[in-house]
Structures are given as structure tokens and as C-alpha cells.
Amino acid sequence: MVSRIGKEIELSPVEMASRYSSRALYNLAAGSPDPSTIPVGEIMNSYDRVLSDLGPRALGYPGAGGQESLVKEIENFLPFLGLSIRKGERLVVTSGAQHAIELIAKYLLENEVVVAENPTFVETLTPMKLRSSVVLPVSLDERGMSVDELESLTRTVKVSIVYIIPNCHNPAGVTTCLERRKRLAELAEERNFYILEDDPYRPISTGVPPPVKSFDNNGRVIYVSTFSKILAPGLRIGFILANQEVAEKLALLEQNDFSTSTINQYVVADLLKRGVIQGRTEQLSSHYGRKMKILVESLRENRLDDFNPPSCGFFLLLNLHKDADSVFHTALTKGLLFVPAGPFFLRGGETYARLSVAVAQEEHIVKGVRVLKEVLSQD
């Protein structure tokens, strides 16, 4: 498929894998939160309260940049993320984090040079590829993006924006260390580029370093987060924290599509006001941490150990040392579903698989790894 500007759009490997989910006995592909963790009762109660209190007002068109009540509650929530709104900054409410990144791509990336971790999340990489002139890869290791490599690149290339997933990386599972976060913020000021900090997993993780945004003294970091992982992805509520100039432009762009549901904004505001969201971090961090420990131990027991140990979140990136697409199709016949990770890479990656603990039951993680070992052991 070709876009209006003549650049190729391919089906996301995440979407491709999801189409096979009905055939999977062991789903190690899904990136959605575990359905058992979604607070359905609390969300139902919030809908009842919002409709009772606001009536038709809760069902009208949303205002540009977000409903006032939700913006206020997110401002109160920011210290929970290690942030605050500084002078000259503003929040913009969006329809999830991917909508936020699409808006940023429209405003900042037209024919510009973008740098991303190699690998990075394929579904946010797509709008960057479509809008920018080029997306350049910088290596990723167990401590995050290689800042030395980035610094060397920016000596010779005028970069517009650097995209990073600093916590519980998708697909690699790693977390950027404190020293590299500080240096990234310094480099953005020195070399005059923006950092797009995509941080959806912080609300379900504990012990991660402060956001890169917290070291930003000159408005060079654009921070994006979402309530999808800590609450429910179907509500489609995320936000951007950026300097006033960028934020106002993004709010106007958001106004053009009216995609952020009015009632869902009021519902999330109600859940924040009552502390429902804030109280879930330790529970969810423990829940996913326990499942990730099972995945790591199962892989090592089966001598599948070519991966950087994940620090938090849903994902682990495993080198299969075989073509991942071929392994995928064989594994599927035995009931195992994972995501071939080649499209997450700007260079290389054909032998990598993204494994997820998000929706899989604990016993299914163990059984799925055994199937993977069986498939890889075949000639």
C-alpha cells in the first residue's frame, strides 16, 4: 500500500500477529494490558457518576487540547511521574500516545531528519517514516540508546528530533540508565534538536530513573504518556507535555480531528480525582514483573538466552538465530504466537522475536517457551 506522499505503508507485524490470535494456545504476541487487571467496576462507576453529574455536557464535542477538568487532574498527576509543569509549558490531551506522536510528526517532522533507537516500536515509527526525510538508527543496548553514537552522528548531521522509549522498552524491554538520560537532555540543548520521550510504561513500573523531561531546562523535550497501560487501552486517553509554542500548535491540530472522546476524558478525570489510577502502580508492576520472571527463567531453562534481560513492562527481545518469519509460521501450527521483530529494526533484526507477557497466563508462558524450543530444535 502507498501513502498520499508516495511512501510505502506496510501492515504492522503487531497487527499481523493479532489476526492469528484466535488460533493461538499460547499468546506471547499481544501488547495490550492483561484483561484481568482492568478495573471494569471502577470504570463503570465513573461513567455513571459523569453522566449523572454532567448529563448531555459529557457527550458533546471535546475542546481543543483537552477538557479543563482532565487537564487539571493530569497536572496533579505529573509529580507521580516525576514531573511538573514549568513556566512556559502546557499539557495537551490526546487520543492515546500514538495519536500524540502522529500530531508531533505532522508539526515537527515534515522532511526533517529523525533519529530513533534500533530497534524501536514499529507502530510509532511508521508516522515518522511517512513525514520525515529520513529516520536514522542509533544502537540500543541494555543501558538504552547509545548516547556516544548519537553524539557522533549529530556532529555531521542536522537532526530535528530524537525518538526514545526510555522505560520498559518496546520491543527490547530495557530501561535507559540515569547517566544517559542526563546526557540526552544536554545534547538536545547543545545540538538544538527535540527529544520525543515516549513513556507509556512508567505508570506500571517502579524504580525507574526520572524522565528525561525532568532534566530539560530549555523546552527541548516533548513528553508523551498514556493511561492505556495502567487503566484500559480502549479509553484512548493520553497526553503531551511540551513547551508553549509546540503545545499550542499540537492543540490546534488535535482540534481538527476531534478524536479524543469527551466522556472518556471526564471518566479518566474522575478516576484520577478519586486516586484509582495512582493506586495501581505497585500492583501492576508486581503482576507483570512476576510474569516476566517466569518468561526469563523458562527461556534460560531451555537454553534460549540471547537477550538483554528486561527491566520492566511487557516485552523481551530474543535472538532466535534463525529467520523469525519462518519460525513464526511453524510455531503457529503448534499454537504459539509471537511477533517477528524485523520491522522494529531500521537495520538488521531478521532473526529477532518480540515475546510478550502482557495477556498470557503464567502456565501458558512456560508452555509457549517449550514450543518455541521444540520449533528451533528442528532442522
Automatic annotation (TrEMBL):
CDD domains: AAT_like. Residues 42-367 form the Aminotransferase class I/classII large domain. One of its GO terms (molecular function) is pyridoxal phosphate binding. The keyword tRNA processing does not apply. Keywords: Aminotransferase, Pyridoxal phosphate, Transferase. The keyword Zinc does not apply. InterPro entries: Aminotransferase_I/II_large, Class-I_PLP-dep_aminotransf, PyrdxlP-dep_Trfase, PyrdxlP-dep_Trfase_major, PyrdxlP-dep_Trfase_small. GO terms for biological process: alpha-amino acid metabolic process. This is GntR family transcriptional regulator.
